[in-house]
Amino acid sequence: MAYQAKVFQVIIASPGDVTRERNLAREIVHNWNSIHSYDKKILLLPIGWETNSAPKMGNRPQEIINKQLLDSSDLLIGIFWTRIGSHTGESISGTVEEITKHVNSGKPAMLYFSKAPVHPDSIDPEQYNLLQIFKKECEKNGLIETYESIEEFNNKLSQQLGIIINKDEYFRKEDLSFIGDITDEDNEFGFVEMLFQESKELVVKTSKDPKGVVIKVRYLDGFDIQTNGNNLNDDNSPKTWATWETVFKQLFAYDLIKDNGTRGEVFSLTMKGYKLADYLVKNNYE
């Protein structure tokens, strides 16, 4: 049954040593949606730099990420283990800068610190010491959580995410009393606003290819993105290549394309990709 819901973006912030937790946090958010979204009329949309940011010049890298992701986020889930991250020019790390700006804007943040065992030789002492200083500052200014295993992280975040959504004033003050009919398609493709324009165009153009195939080939002096007999890249610059690399990662993340097993050069639309293409054309998104 179709229903209308308020969408809240959940940004997952962390250094690079907690990949398992980042992936699990996304799953936990999706699980919350499957159980509670209909009754609460709330949809939580997990986002992160790896799937929702795009290459851009003209500013600090972290500031670009802030504008593309952080500024529009509603809830932040921060995760740490042994590292604090790299200095951004403004803060000791990108993750810390995201947390600071998010909290200062009056939005809720949930911080988790791993106590899982780690081999001493794998720890960067400077990183670890900076992390401990930051952790102590967080303890003075709020309530943090710790965990000793991936299973404990799963249990705690699953339970505490529900507590935040149910009790935090940020979510309670939102007007969820709107009424309106939406279609099953609108429900299924609620993520469409998160897609880059290039991603939408590629899905539509690939759907018109007789075999639903798009080719991404890199040469010594350039590259080609081809589908339906057309070359989609305007030039062979590194910036353009980086943009298309990000587009393909995003389409994979949303299960819109699949690799045909040809060394990452030939891809085809999934059934979900075809359905999205029809939806985009129908709603003039292309």
What does the model show?
The structure is a single chain. With 286 residues, this protein is an alpha/beta fold. It has 2 domains: 6-172, Toll/interleukin-1 receptor homology (TIR) domain (Rossmann fold, 3-Layer(aba) Sandwich), CATH 3.40.50; 192-282, Arc Repressor Mutant, subunit A, CATH 1.10.10. 45% of the residues lie in helices and 18% in strands. Helix 1 (19-40) links the parallel strand 1 and strand 2 (42-47). Helix 9 packs across helix 11 (271-282). Residues 177-182 have low confidence and may be disordered.
Write a brief structural summary:
The protein contains 11 helices and 10 strands. With 286 residues, the protein is an alpha/beta fold. It has 2 domains: 167 residues, Rossmann fold; 91 residues, Arc Repressor Mutant, subunit A (Orthogonal Bundle).
Key descriptive features of the protein:
single chain, 286 residues, alpha/beta, Rossmann fold, Arc Repressor Mutant, subunit A, 2 domains, 5-stranded parallel sheet, 5-stranded antiparallel sheet, 18% strand, globular
Topology:
Elements: E1 6-13, H1 19-40, E2 42-47, H2 49-52, H3 61-68, E3 75-80, H4 94-104, E4 109-114, H5 125-141, E5 145-147, H6 150-167, H7 169-172, H8 184-188, H9 197-207, E6 213-219, E7 222-227, E8 230-231, H10 238-253, E9 257-259, E10 266-269, H11 271-282
Parallel strand pairs: 1-2, 1-3, 3-4, 4-5
Antiparallel strand pairs: 6-7, 6-10, 7-8, 9-10
Helix pairs in contact: 1-6, 9-11
